[in-house]
Amino acid sequence: MQTFNIHEAKTKLSRLVEEAAKGNAFIIAKAGKPMVKVLPLSADDCKVTGKLGFMAEEILIPDDFDSFMASEIEEMFEGKTV
Q: Residue 71: how many CB atoms within 10 A of its CB?
């Protein structure tokens, strides 16, 4: 497995990422000391784990949401209420 110092890795990043995506992992070192290993992602790594809409049907938004209590809020901003 090849090792690249940070400066060299920054200079060749695009090419190194392409190589890693093909399965050619590499190591990035700082002052000769290995710091990180760059590996390609698997299909499982890219799966979305959270569920979209997980609270559907549990939270209801009123139809007048945009104007809900608008007059009361306006009065508070104008200082008409306590």
A: 8
